[in-house]
Amino acid sequence: MLPRDRYGLTLSTGPDAAAAYSRGLDDLLRLRTGSAGAFATSIVLDPRFALGHAGLALVGHDLCVEVDVVGRMRDAKRWAHLGTEREQSHVAAVLAHLRGDSRPIIDHLARFPVDALLLSAAVPTIAFAGVTEVPEQAWAIVEGAAPAYGDDWWYAGLLAFIRQEQERFEESMELAVASLAEQPDAGHSAHARAHVHYETGDHAGGLGWMDAWVTGDGAAIESLSHFSWHAALHELSLGDLDAVRRRYDGQLRPELATGCRALVDSGSLLIRWALTPDAEDVPGLEQVATAVGRDVLVRPATPFLGMHAAATLLALGDGAGLTSLATWASAHGHATHREVVAPLARALHQLHSGQASTAASSLASLAASVRRVGGSDAQRELVEEIRIAALLRADRFDEARDLIDRRLDRRPSARDAAWRRQCRAAAGRQLATQLGQSGETETEASAEASAIASL
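Below the sequence we write its predicted structure tokens.
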């Protein structure tokens, strides 16, 4: 009898290779270190094990692990016929996804919902960028799999992430807590809980819980830099920039991150930190660029990475890089690269070139489509914050204040409140200048500006 994975699916290989593959799957579902190494071990033990080749190709592509993706794709296709119908469908879905067509993964999951590796890959969470650009479609994929998983702890964590995206925060927290009670190192559940704390503005509570988890039950998690990023977001929101600096130095320097996490976590934090009112001596992104390599910045594997690459190139002052990214993305076969990443890179090039008002307008036109790149609302806020900075630089203070007010309506944030005060003060100075130029006395101008700034 052939071995099976943790959800009872057949693995067409010997017991040793199957055990290695199952370790890799378990590590990936828990977000622990070692999944790529375990998948690699499975194909060393059985070079004709197509699922092992496909799994390694998938994590190499989506997680920026150093893998010969093309070679693994070739061998997965070569040996797929030796597997069951489910394994052949799995391999075909992975290969199509890596070539830019994710529909086969969705179709595969309709037939085999307990294929947990592909269910994980289908949803934009901490591990993968997902296979659909419409959040509601990802929600439907996960919710549709519920009967196949029952009260499984891993599935509960994945569903918890969906529930927080739907702003069903209480339900999300209940699912995450129940999952963590059964499996204390359940990375997806911890991730969902981190988002609930952030989205509800529970910055002090979320920070305390996160610090305890990453040094306790979650200490073996591969994506610790992302959980540190979550903690740093709480510190930014609380306005504690000294804590952000300590967090960065101790947990988020690029050399401490794995694969693309140096870009997604370390790089995005540095940008958002630099945009924060009163931030001083923020480290540059040169080490991030070195850690991820030039190819990732100008030819990112996914639109999600493309969003972060564009922001990083802007922070580096690399106009040529933004032009290269825009040109490459404009000709890409993936519509989101063409329709979101390319215009985003062009908008940020406008900002780089000193055209702040034009850039702000360009970013406003992209506001509704940025969600197509995947990731979470908290991650995509990076683009919103750059837009606010562009509006401030363009002296479009009313529009900047409106954006900041909408953020404060979503959740309390000392950082955003400080940003709003900065915006009001700048608007007041602008009005004082305008009134002075129109013949008002300096005292009258200052009084009226102060009154508007106090609104």
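The radius of gyration is 23 Å.
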